[in-house]
Each structure stands twice: as structure tokens, then as C-alpha cells.
């Protein structure tokens, strides 16, 4: 590095590159791909995974993996939800840790981690760096970087740079998270029947209806995986269901096996995924079975996530909920015990944040087009 090129200048340059990526990426998956390529010019790593998540449940809504991580990604998800281990993402978010390395968490003894012994080491990886992507108190994704066991562990300088970049990455991942861009041949109708997928306890497909197959095709397309692979969101809700229901399974979260995946495409509704263990649903070997439902999201499921995306204040969230119910300005003022002028001020702020110019546009954007 040039002696005149200070760490502060490096940070500024890296942040500007991330901002440009966020302004030009056509979708969440494209942003993740470009982000990893760009980060590699700033920090050395041998493999990476970037995952977007539902900020309310921290379940994956889609992942981009590269350089061999795809082969072990399902195992990483399994260990995230079903095993006790160091520096799990829900723990990092809950404890407010902005970055953590496997070498640091194990005090230089990675063998103390079951994930390292059973997944990372057999795949040839050594140190692992985990960064929850937080913006304004909400988590929008996880960035995980890996180094081969023959390489040095992540340095303090590496961690400081990535920790400083994380809020900018989180902001643009949040913006890109409304970017499910389906192939023109895959258009989902709002009034179609729910999709139902039945899986074994090892997440092997047993049966499905045509609607579930359509949703699976859309999610696979988004992640760039083949038809033999389960999309990360499906695995995530299933592992969460197993973690909360199977005897002896480890869980640190009481959040449900449910997530909401947003879409920016007018032909594709937001989808809600739910998973549950089937009562008495056991195969010939005594293995449990799971059912996964795919349904267009309801307004009550979408509004909390949209509130996070558009950074509505608590008062603005209340106003949007009441607007969706059809209340007039006078009725809003009465219901919230504020003046009509204050309601108008809040509406201006909501319109600005949501990029609309009228109530009709707002209702269409957050409700009508999806129901």
C-alpha cells in the first residue's frame, strides 16, 4: 500500500465503492455477488457467503455463496439453528456484537467449535469472520468470510475495516431486499391456492403441489441454484421448526418458523413461508416429516417489514396501518389524538420516505397490489 494512502482514505474509498454498487445493482442477489467481488479488493479471503434475512426472525430470505461454500451451506444453516456453538448470528445480534472471528471467539483454539470440527475443517477452511449487517437497529443480513487453514487468521485491521463498512452494506442490502426479479415465465398470481411442500426430517422432498413447485422455482432462480437444491429460506424455516420442536434440539430463539420475503415486481406478491412438524408424520424409519406453506403475504405480515425498510417512525407506522383501513385525515386525527395539521405533516414524511405522492399510491404500494 502506498505510504500516502492512509487507512482513513482506504475506508472512504471502500465505502464509496459500496454506495455505487448499491445504486446500480438490479437485485438483492446481484448486489451480494458484486459486493463480495468488491470486498475482495479490500480484504483477503478465500470464500464468502452473503445472506439477506427477515429482520424480525433473522431467518434467511436468500443467500449468495461462492468458492466452495455452496457445498457446505446447508450444514452451516443446520449448525446455526440446531447446534450450540460459538458466535452464532442470533447471539451476535442479541448481544450487540458487530463483528466476530472464530479465532478470537475460541481464543486461538478453533477446535472448540463444533462447526469448525464438523463443517469448516473438513472443507479446508480455518478462520471464519462473521458480520451482522445492522442498520438503525435492524439486522438485514449476515456476511461471512472464510480463510483456508493454510492462511493467516483475520487481522484486527481487517476486522476494523469491515466493521466500519457494515452499516453501509446493511443499508444497501435493505434497499435491494425488495428486488426479487422473477423470470417473465414465472408469474405468481395472488389468488392461487397455497403452496404445500412435505419434507423428511433430513429435508428431502416427499411431495408438493404445483403452487409450491412454482415458488420453489422462483426462489431457486433468485439464488442461482439447481432444481435438486432447496432454497435457503426453505431450509431456514425448516431448521427453525426442528429447533423448536424436536426433543433435545438446541435453540436460542423463540421466534416462529416463519418469514416474509419481499418482492418489488408487480407480478409477484410477497411470499410468507411457514414450516411445522407434522403430527404423526413419520416415515418408515421413524423420521419426522415437515410441511412448508407458501402463501402471498397478508398486509399484517408485510407492514412491519415495510416499516423497517422505509424507516417509518412508530407514529408513521400507526398512520399507515390506519390509512390501509381507510380512515380519513379527520378520523386519523381523532384516533391518534393529534391535530389534522400534524397528520398532514406525518403524511408528507411518509410519502417522502416511501417515494409516493398520494394516499392512493401509498395504499397500492403497501397493500392493494399484493392482495
Characterization of this structure:
The protein has helices at residues 7-24, 28-39, 73-82, 89-95, 102-105, 114-120, 156-176, 210-223, 232-245, 299-309, 314-324, 329-336, 340-354, 359-366, and strands at 47-53, 60-66, 100-101, 125-135, 138-148, 195-200, 205-208, 258-261, 271-282, 288-296. It folds into three domains: 7-176, Beta-Lactamase (2-Layer Sandwich); 195-298, Beta-Lactamase, CATH 3.30.450; 310-370, Arc Repressor Mutant, subunit A, CATH 1.10.10. A five-stranded antiparallel sheet has the order 2-1-5-4-3, with helices on both faces. It has a five-stranded antiparallel sheet with strand order 7-6-10-9-8. Helix 1 (7-24) runs antiparallel to helix 2 (28-39), helix 3 (73-82) runs parallel beside helix 9 (232-245) and helix 11 packs across helix 13 (340-354). The radius of gyration is 22 Å and the shape is globular. The protein is an alpha+beta fold. The chain contains 14 helices and ten strands.
The figure for the number of domains is 3
Q: Can you tell me the CATH superfamily of the largest domain?
A: GAF domain
How many strands? 10
What is the end-to-end distance? 55 Å
Number of helices: 14
CATH level-1 class of the largest domain = Alpha Beta
> Poorly predicted ranges (pLDDT <50, ≥5 residues)?
1-6, 179-187
The biggest beta sheet, please?
Answer: 5 strands, antiparallel
> Radius of gyration in whole Å, from Cα?
22 Å
Order of helices and strands: HHEEHHEHHEEHEEHHEEEHHHHH
**What share of the residues does DSSP label as strand, in percent?**
15-25%
Amino acid at each position: 500500500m502506498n505510504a500516502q494512502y492512509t487507512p482513513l482514505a482506504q475506508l472512504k474509498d471502500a465505502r464509496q465503492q459500496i454506495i455505487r454498487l448499491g445504486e446500480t445493482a438490479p437485485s438483492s442477489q446481484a448486489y451480494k455477488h458484486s459486493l463480495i467481488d468488491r470486498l475482495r479488493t479490500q480484504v483477503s479471503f478465500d470464500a464468502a457467503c452473503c445472506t439477506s434475512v427477515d429482520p424480525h426472525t433473522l431467518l434467511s430470505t436468500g443467500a449468495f455463496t461462492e468458492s466452495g461454500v455452496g457445498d457446505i451451506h446447508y450444514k452451516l444453516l443446520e449448525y446455526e439453528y440446531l447446534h450450540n456453538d460459538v458466535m452464532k448470528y442470533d447471539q451476535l445480534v442479541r448481544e450487540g456484537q458487530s463483528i466476530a472471528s472464530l479465532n478470537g471467539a475460541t481464543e486461538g483454539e478453533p477446535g472448540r467449535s463444533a462447526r469448525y470440527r464438523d463443517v469448516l475443517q473438513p472443507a479446508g477452511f480455518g478462520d471464519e469472520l462473521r458480520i451482522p449487517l445492522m442498520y438503525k437497529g435492524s439486522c438485514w443480513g449476515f456476511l461471512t468470510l472464510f480463510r483456508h487453514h493454510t492462511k493467516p487468521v483475520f487481522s484486527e485491521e481487517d476486522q476494523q475495516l469491515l466493521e466500519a463498512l457494515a452499516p453501509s452494506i446493511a443499508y444497501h442490502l435493505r434497499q435491494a431486499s425488495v428486488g426479487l426479479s422473477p423470470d417473465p415465465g414465472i408469474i405468481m398470481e395472488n389468488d392461487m391456492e397455497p403452496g404445500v411442500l412435505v419434507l423428511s426430517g433430513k429435508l428431502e422432498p416427499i411431495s408438493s403441489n404445483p403452487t409450491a413447485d412454482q415458488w420453489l422455482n422462483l426462489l431457486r432462480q433468485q439464488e442461482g441454484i439447481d432444481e435438486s437444491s432447496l432454497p435457503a429460506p426453505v431450509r431456514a424455516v425448516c431448521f427453525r421448526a426442528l429447533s423448536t420442536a424436536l426433543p433435545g434440539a438446541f435453540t436460542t430463539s423463540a421466534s416462529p418458523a416463519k418469514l416474509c420475503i419481499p418482492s418489488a415486481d408487480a407480478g409477484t406478491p410477497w411470499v410468507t413461508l411457514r414450516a411445522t412438524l407434522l403430527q404423526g408424520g413419520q416415515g418408515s424409519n421413524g423420521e419426522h416429516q415437515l410441511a412448508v406453506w407458501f402463501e402471498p403475504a397478508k398486509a399484517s405480515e408485510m407492514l412491519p417489514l415495510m416499516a423497517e425498510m422505509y424507516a417509518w417512525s412508530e407514529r408513521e407506522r400507526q398512520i399507515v396501518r390506519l390509512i390501509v383501513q381507510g380512515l380519513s385525515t379527520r378520523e386519523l386525527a381523532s384516533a391518534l389524538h393529534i391535530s389534522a395539521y400534524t397528520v398532514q405533516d406525518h403524511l408528507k414524511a411518509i410519502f417522502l420516505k416511501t417515494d409516493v405522492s398520494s394516499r392512493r399510491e401509498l395504499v397500492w404500494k403497501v397493500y392493494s397490489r399484493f392482495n
